[in-house]
Amino acid sequence: MANHQYSNVEYCDIHFCYGKANGNAELARRYYMEQYPKRNIPHAQTFSSVHRRLTEYGSFKGSNGNRGRPRNARNVQQEERVLEII
What we know:
4 helices; mainly alpha
């Protein structure tokens, strides 16, 4: 199984087609093929995966796209206390 990397523009187009197809990944793939015939056409599952990652992580890249030290609940609570003091 190939691991394709898409640009942010391509991810936006993938997500747009998924929305246009009202969450139907197969139909989204057809829309994408019609709109961008010279591009690499993602698998149908990619459309739903991109939507899920955007919904869950707020990013097309998913949790692996985050950089830096991971934030946990304790760190967030400490940051909130510091902000209240300031």
